Amino acid sequence: MSGLYTSLTMAARALSAQQLGLEVTGNNISNVNTAGYARRTIDFAAVKPESSLSAGGGVEVQGIRSVRDGLLERRVLEEVPVQGRANELSQILQVVESGIGATGQSIDGRLTEMFGSFSRLADAPTSAVARADVLNTATELTQSFHEMAGRLSDAQRQADSRVRSTVEEINGLVDQISSLNHSMSASGPEGRLPLQDQMSNLLQSLNNLVNVDVVNRSDGGVDITVGSGRALVIGDETYRLSAVSQPPNGLAGVVAGGADITSELRSGQIVGAIQARDVNIPDYMNRLDTIAYELVNQVNTIHQGGYDQLGNTNQNFFTPLGSADGAARLIQVDPAVAADSRLIAAAGVNEVGDNTVAKSLANLRDSLVLEGNSATLVDSWSHLAFRVGRDTRAAMDGAKSQGDIVEQIDALRDSVSGVSLDEEAVSMIKFQRAYEANARFFSTIDQTLSILFSIVGN
Amino acid sequence: MRLTFAATMRDTYSGIADAAERMIKYQRQVSTGIKVAQPSDDPSATATTISEKAAHASYEQYIQAGDSAESRLSVADTLLSDIIEKLGASRTAILSAQGSETSGAQRESSAQQLASLRDAVLEDLTTSFRGTYVFGGAAGTVRPYSKDNAGVVQPYAGSTREVAVDVDRNRPVTVVFNGEAIVTGTDTTDLFTAFDNAIVAARAGDADALHTASGAIQRAFDRASQVQSSVGTSLTAIADHTSRLEDAGRASTQRVASLEEANMAEAISGMQQAQTAYNAALGAASQTTRRSLFDYLS
After folding, report:
1. Residue A457 burial by Cβ neighbours in a 10 Å radius (0-12, 13-18, 19+)
2. Does residue A73 surpass a pLDDT of 70?
3. For A75-112, b where at least 16 C-beta lie within 10 A, e where not — what string?
């Protein structure tokens, strides 16, 4: 009799185990679209027989675990920040690129128009119309420089704004991770699985923003450092970053524990924004300033050697600039000249019909005055456009390439941890059939017991 | 390798997105006719296009300067032809006034003819074009010669500095001339003094003075002919340079087109291929996502 009751108990335990298996399958199917979710698997083990004459104790559930590959998880965390940096740089540079303008319709077009107007002035040095034309084209050119400098400055400020907002996002994630650390240490191993999913998700998001180093804790939580070992999260303690405006231009530095760690950051979205803000855009601004500064100097030098219609000499055409710094923003036609076109010096001698200086100014178009006397002003602008295009293309290609790498590693990780609906369907059938078989076994034992009870009753 | 639902979906989307991106790229090329819309589309082509467009604008500018110079030189050529003709007529008039048989009436007629020719030459030499005197040099708006109240032509008031414009790189062409170089040259007195002397001599029947004046007018004739010759050379040079600049401009336009403009046949073909790929990606997605093992469970 006791053997049959043992069989009944074994069947009941088996029914529970298969039912739990079905629940795990259902949970996997439910979370098929949950980011960071690692599929669960149930571990069964045969219960040891009580004696050598016993068939065995049936099945027992040893546990439910999530299927993860630590190596692949780490590879994802290594590659995601590189992707974040490339994506951010690409996005900011595409904005910069859109401000460069179409060929022939930007600074290059305005330069060409101004030199054209000097050429027309050379053809008719006494013409008031030709003089007004020079003023118009020169003013248009200065406005184009101002607009271009403004666009670059705006892009730099937007990149700075991205740095500041990314610091806030990092702090938000750091808070969530420390809170999760606390929950993990408070919960038992069985309650940690969903928390691990969340942690995996948060770490990936954090690494997308900034490259961090992660050390796993024995309680299931993580300790996180950034830069050269600066603590971000230790247990449930957080060490927040801050974005502090720095002299001379007020752009934000990333500060941790009072130390500026901007230069310590290696990758992540924030580094893409910092690179665009501190390297790419300043390079473009410097080049634009150099073109504007050299234009002012060259035109003024020639103009000073000429005579205007009133017989004045040694006059500037553009307002002189002290240095190239900010030249594109500051360039302007000398106010006196702008107010009276007769003050444009077209003549090389004090005779109003002479056009020597106007010709020299027109010929400046072809003069190699930049980049070690190897480039004209338009050449230098074309080099700037080339650099913007090249940097943007490289950033876009980098983002695409890095995206492919992350996608491949993600696919590998998915092949281990992801939910396969076909596999879950098979599991569902497997547990369902096992449940049916165990139910039949239970029924058979029950019928056997009934027969025995009826014999006893008779 | 396990194929998961998320990986399948990601691959499906990635395939559709890539095909759509290619299709949009070709669509943009077909609709705008431009294949380099942003510097990053082809940085090198962008830089070259900027330089080519600047060079093209420079050719256009030189052609425009050449057209303007040609107009001025055509006027100068006409005036010089007129001056040369008048100077030739003046020498004929002087010859008519010479000779012992010439009557007083004939000499007076010659004198009046010389006065008329002098005034005509003066008018030619003080002609302005587009606001500046053709033979006034760099003085521009200053009338080079004028008469005083007594009708005597005053010394040259223009500039001895001539004005040139560039009709090509390093190719200047003189368009405003030094009138004094024609009227006086290396002589000690100018052409108008010679005319005045000839008129007085004609009336007086002074053969020696007429001969001297005739020589001075002949030298002015030579100087004017020399200037006209240089004008002709300049006009030929302008035509040659304009032709070269037009050729260079056409070549530059072609280079810009090859760099910047889309090959429509290629773009349309590419768009059709991309569209086929896009439709295939959509079809593949609908096929792969339509069924799973769950569809077969009862």
Report:
1. exposed
2. yes
3. bbbebbbbbbbbbbbbbbbeebbebbbbbbebbbbbbb
B43 within a domain of the structure (yes/no):
no
The H or E element spanning position A432 is helix A421-457
Cβ distance of A103 and B6 shorter than 8 Å:
no
pTM of the shown model:
0.87
pLDDT higher than threshold 50 for residue A139: yes
Contact with chain B for residue A382, Cβ under 8 A? yes
Indicate whether B172 belongs to any domain: yes
Work out the widest C-alpha separation in chain A, in whole angstroms: 144
In this complex, do A94 and B40 lie within 8 Å of one another by their Cβ atoms?
Answer: yes
Residues B49, B282: contact at Cβ < 8 Å?
no
Rounded to whole angstroms, the Cα distance separating A390 from B80 reads 59
The residue type of A59 is V
**Span B223-277, pLDDT tens digits:** 999 999 999 999 999 999 999 999 999 999 999 999 988 889 999 999 999 999 9
Tell me which chain B residues have a C-beta less than 8 angstroms from the C-beta of A119. Answer: 61, 64-65, 166
Is residue A194 over pLDDT 90? Answer: no
Closest of B96, B122, B121 to residue B109, by C-alpha: B96
Span A289-307, pLDDT tens digits? 999 999 999 999 999 999 9
Question: What residue type is assigned to position A107 of the chain?
Answer: I
Helices (H), chain B: 5-32, 43-97, 104-125, 179-183, 191-204, 207-260, 264-290
Q: Is the model more confident about A261 or about A6?
A: A261
Residue A371 touches partner B, C-beta closer than 8 Å: no
Q: Which of A108, A386, A425 sits opposite B43 (nearest CB)?
A: A386
**A2 pLDDT above the threshold of 60:** no
Type of residue at B159: S
Q: Is A385 on the interface with B (CB under 8 A)?
A: yes
User: Residue holding tokens 């752009």?
Assistant: A251
> Is there a contact between A181 and A235 (Cβ–Cβ < 8 Å)?
yes
Query: What is the sign of the dihedral through the CA atoms of B144, B146, B148 and B149?
Result: negative
Give the domain range for residue B144: 83-248
CATH code of the domain covering residue B155: 1.20.1330.10
B257, part of any domain: no
Contact A111, B61 (CB under 8 A): no
pLDDT band of A27, cuts 50, 70, 90: very high
A134's tokens: 């020079």
Q: Which candidate, A147, A156, A388, A165, places its Cα nearest to that of A249?
A: A156
Residue B267, helix vs strand vs coil: helix
Amino acid at site A398 = G
What is the reported pLDDT for A29? 93
pLDDT at A300: 98
Both tokens of A327, joined, read 């030249």
Domain count, chain B: 1
The pLDDT tens digits for A55-72 are 788 899 999 999 999 899
Which residue is closest to B39 within chain A, CA to CA? A389
pLDDT lower than 50: segments of chain B = none
In this structure, what DSSP letter does residue A42 have?
E
Does residue B66 sit within a domain?
no
Contact list, B38 vs chain A (CB under 8 Å)? 97-98, 389, 392
* CB contact set of B222 (below 8 Å; sequence gap of 6+): none
pLDDT per residue as tens digits for the range A93-133: 999 999 999 999 999 999 999 999 999 999 999 999 999 99
| Residue B48: per-residue pLDDT | 95
